[in-house]
Amino acid sequence: MITVTALPAFSDNYLWLLERDGHAVVVDPGDAAVVQAALEERRLKLAAILITHHHPDHVGGLAALTAATGARVYGPRAEQARIKGLQVLLDDGDSVQLDELGVTLDVLAVPGHTLGHIAYFEAVQHLLFCGDTLFVGGCGRLFEGTAAQMHASLARLAQLPEDTAVYCAHEYTLANYDFATMVEPDNRALADEFSRLRQLRTEGRSTVPGSIRRERALNPFLRSAEPSLAAAVSHHDQRAIDDPVEVFAALRRWKDGHVPSIR
Predict the structure, then answer these.
(1) Alpha carbon of 109 to those of 52, 92, 133, 143, 177: distances in Å?
(2) Is 54 assigned a catalytic role?
């Protein structure tokens, strides 16, 4: 069994440290200093670095970490031109064998936030490292891909086992639930979960990881086929919208313009 530890960075990022028997792997090391401090504190040897996509807050520490540790660097082939230092190029359907940790990760292409975005799924402990594609209660912005691409990517992740732990890369949960409860003000389950999550943050605790079970049940971006979401976006846009991809696109536009009252 591997242990997964959150390494908070910047204002709301989580870098994920996987460890077992003195060896470690880090996912999306935007800040090398945070990772190096954790390695020293835990007396770990960094064996590998996993990258989900090219944004600076996910790759900013890559050069310093590889220079200091010699760790192997895995990342999306489709974004190799935008990520300096990738050593093992990955495509959809590939697997990453991490012998030092005794685990294998399946590679899933999940375009939308960026065109080459990938996620990593560990099928024994059911661990998902999904970067900025799926968040607790939300999803990533469409900086490069289309709504149809992101909708398909989220649908793919939603098909993972329901007890899968969702290790996303940001603590965006309260803002996501602020939006979700505004869209569906009569959804009691959403309101109850929002209350639970606010209490976690009040106690200084993380809301991540989430779970595929909860995301299927509560995340509006995974539920765009439900009539309640179609009705909400139709009312907001003042036009009839019922196609699930169009409902998703309308939700994403609405969220992009929403200023959360809580973070």
Answers:
(1) 9, 5, 10, 16, 26
(2) no
